[in-house]
């Protein structure tokens, strides 16, 4: 039998992943000049020099061969110490796997926990790679909405309403991308009780845990009663230390899960490059001052963004952390995708629509804090003019 087209050879898990709106935006941007990019989640800061030096020294010193799949022991020990000191969670170094970015850590965790047909509860809006990972594992995504009036904090009651007998895994991101939503301790305690009551495993993505605004409290789910043996904590170095291209993350998991998770890590990538692991260790040892400096600048940029949005009459959820503001542009009369395309075409400002983040409402945009203060101010001045013209047209 002859197949109709070469694409008919593709597995269903592959064809379910569609070309994204991001690609369309980038193709449009390629033909334009003077663009101010407030779209991508890549810090505009350079990696701190001490971290770069440690990576370079490691390469020169022979860190060019495989490590054991879980990673360098000294880095895993350093991660375990930091988790205890800063997050009040207790993992041995044997419960940690160093990964190629937090994204690999998430995929390893989902592949280790999800069987075909299992339901995975995800907050919405969210980083849409979660959906693709669940699809690869054969699971089924169940949405739990977070709301602007709650500043996009996750609510236990909303999770409870989404649970069925097939629910196996809850994945949360705290703070969240794209909303910056920070779920407070009291609500996390209710979520923890729900997980215990319904025997759910939980993946807690805490990649933004060092980027918390206004002195708010970040709480690791694994630190709460009953959660240490049913939580996988995922984190990494990309965001807080401006190390996105280094691709170093990690997962910290219950001991009973480690053998399976290590085998998946070995299958995916054998190990994380050892010289880059040495850079990550330097980040743990000497990077906190740089993190504090970058956080202070993000807070300054956040104040600028919300002041401009208030002036435009555009609402938003106040972010508790992260690198983003999630703004509701429905008052302009445009849907989010049209808003983003026209803002880019007319004003040379790039932001991304909420539809890229599992938000079907098509009325929100994500604005990043990842350009210099002056550039953000100019971009929002351009946006204000665009909004005013759209509203009177």
Structural notes for this entry:
It is a single chain. The chain is an alpha/beta fold and 393 residues long. Helix content is 42%, strand content 15%. It has helices at 12-15, 21-29, 49-60, 73-87, 101-113, 129-137, 156-162, 185-197, 258-269, 274-286, 288-312, 336-347, 373-392, and strands at residues 36-37, 96-99, 119-124, 140-145, 167-173, 201-205, 231-236, 249-252, 315-317, 324-328, 349-350, 352-353, 364-368. The strands form three sheets. A seven-stranded mixed sheet has the order 2-8-7-6-5-3-4, with helices on both faces. Strand 5, helix 8 and strand 6 form a beta-alpha-beta unit. Helix 4 (73-87) runs parallel beside helix 10, helix 5 (101-113) runs parallel beside helix 6 (129-137) and helix 11 runs parallel beside helix 13 (373-392). The longest helix is centred in the last third of the chain and has 25 residues, at 288-312.
User: Which parts are unreliable, with pLDDT below 50 for 5 consecutive residues or more?
Assistant: none
Q: SSE order in H/E notation?
A: HHEHHEHEHEHEHEEEHHHEEHEEEH
Give the strand order, joined by hyphens, for the main sheet. 2-8-7-6-5-3-4
What is the 3D shape? globular
Main structural class: alpha/beta
Supply Rg.
21 Å
Provide the residue-averaged pLDDT: 96
């Amino acid at each position: 039998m002859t197949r109709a087209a070469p694409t008919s050879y593709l597995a269903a898990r592959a064809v379910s992943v569609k070309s994204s709106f991001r690609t369309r935006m980038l193709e449009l941007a390629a033909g334009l000049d003077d663009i101010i990019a407030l779209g991508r989640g890549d810090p505009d800061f350079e990696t701190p020099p001490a971290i770069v030096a440690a990576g370079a020294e490691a390469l020169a010193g022979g860190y060019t061969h495989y490590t054991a799949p879980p990673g360098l022991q000294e880095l895993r020990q350093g991660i375990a110490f930091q988790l205890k000191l800063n997050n009040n969670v207790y993992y041995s170094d044997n419960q940690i796997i160093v990964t190629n970015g937090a994204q690999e850590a998430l995929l390893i965790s989902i592949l280790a926990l999800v069987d075909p047909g299992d339901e995975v509860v995800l907050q919405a809006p969210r980083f849409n790679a979660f959906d693709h990972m669940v699809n690869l594992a054969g699971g089924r995504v169940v949405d739990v909405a977070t709301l602007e009036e709650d500043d996009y904090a996750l609510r236990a009651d909303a999770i409870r309403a989404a649970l069925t007998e097939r629910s196996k895994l809850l994945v949360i991101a705290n703070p969240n991308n794209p909303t910056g939503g920070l779920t407070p301790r009291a609500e996390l305690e209710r979520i923890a009780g729900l997980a215990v009551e319904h025997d759910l495993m939980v993946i807690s993505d805490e990649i933004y845990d060092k980027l918390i605004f206004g002195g708010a409290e970040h709480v690791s789910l694994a630190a709460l009663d009953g959660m240490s043996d049913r939580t996988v904590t995922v984190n990494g170095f990309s965001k807080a230390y401006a190390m996105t291209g280094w691709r170093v993350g990690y997962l910290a998991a219950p001991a009973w899960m480690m053998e399976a998770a290590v085998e998946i890590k070995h299958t995916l990538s054998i190990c994380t490059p050892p010289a880059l692991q040495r850079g990550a260790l330097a980040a743990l040892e000497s990077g906190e001052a740089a993190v504090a400096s970058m956080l202070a600048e993000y807070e300054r940029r956040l104040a600028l963004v919300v002041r401009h949005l208030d002036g435009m009459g555009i609402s938003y959820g106040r972010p508790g952390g992260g690198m983003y503001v999630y703004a509701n542009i429905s008052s302009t009369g445009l849907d989010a995708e049209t808003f983003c395309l026209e803002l880019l075409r007319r004003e040379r400002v790039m932001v991304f629509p909420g539809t890229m983040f599992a938000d079907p409402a098509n009325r929100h945009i994500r604005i990043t804090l990842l350009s210099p203060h002056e550039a953000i101010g100019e971009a929002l001045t351009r946006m204000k003019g665009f909004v005013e013209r759209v509203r009177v047209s």
